[in-house]
Write the C-alpha cells for this entry.
Amino acid sequence: RQERPVEEALAVLKRLPFEDMGFAKVDHHRALRCGFPEVVYCEGKQTEQVLAIIGRRLAGGGNLLATRVSTDLAAAVRRRFRNARYNAIARTITIRQPKRPSQGHEIGPAGNRSHTGGGPAGANYVAIVCAGTSDMPVAEEARETCEIMDQPTRHFYDVGVAGIHRLLAHLGELADAVAIVVCAGMEGALPSVVGGLVSAPVIAVPTSVGYGAHLQGLAPLLTMLNSCAAGVSVVNIDNGFGAGYMAALIGRAVARGGDARASDARAAEVSAHVGEPRTSVRAASRRKHAPRSPRSPRHAARSAKNP
C-alpha cells in the first residue's frame, strides 16, 4: 500500500480529471473513458509548451503519442525524454511506459508489432496500405498510431491502381485483416478497389499528394466519399492518426469478441466432460435463474394417474 502526506494527496486529487497548465488542460482521464491517453498534436505549439505537456502527460501514466512533430522539435523532446522514439517519415514521437495496475482500460505494452506483408505477424492485424511512396508519411502516421495502441499491423506500400497487380499479390493477407487503412492521393481510387475485394472495414485516407486540380487532397476526398464499394468510410485529408486510431478500436472490439467466444468454447468443453449440454455461460446463467413456470392442473392430474 502506498502512503503519502495529506497535502500531497490533495494536490493529486486537484489534478483529476484534468490538469490546468494555463496554456493547456491535460486530460488525465482520457484512457479511462476512451481506452488510450490523450494524444499530443504538436503543430502550432511552442517547443517549451510541448515539452511541458509531454512531461505532465507521462506523469499521468500510459503510453504517449505525439503527432506532427518537426525534426527540431523531435530533437528537443529526445534530449528531455531519453526513451522517446521519433519516426521522421510519420513525424511522430512515441514513448512506452510500464502499465500501472490502475490502467486496466489500456492494453499493455507489446513492443513494435509492425510487419511488412509476406509472412505471419499474429492474428487480428490491421493492414496499412498506401497507393504510392509519396503517401507513406500519412500511412506511417496510421501505423505508428496502431502500434502505440498495441494493435498489430502489416503494411503494403506502393500498391496503387496504376499497377494493380502489386495490390492483388497481397490479396490473401488483405482479406484476413480485421480492418484496412488505405491512403491515396491523385484521384483516390484505391480504397474503392480494396473495398470491392475484402469483407473487412476499409478506412480511406485522402492525401494531399497530386497535381494542380488535385486541390491539395480535395479531389481524392470527394472520390472516396462517393465510393461505390460498401464498407468504405473516410477520414479527413492526411489524417493518418484518425484512421489508425479507428482501426485500432476495431481491432480491440474484434479481440473482445474473440475472448468471449473462447470463454464460451471453454465452458462447452467443461460441460461435455461432466455430461451437461453444451451451452454458453450466459445461456446457462439465464436458464439457472429463470423462474419455473407452474404446471397446469391437467398436467398435474396426468402425473398423479401415471406415477
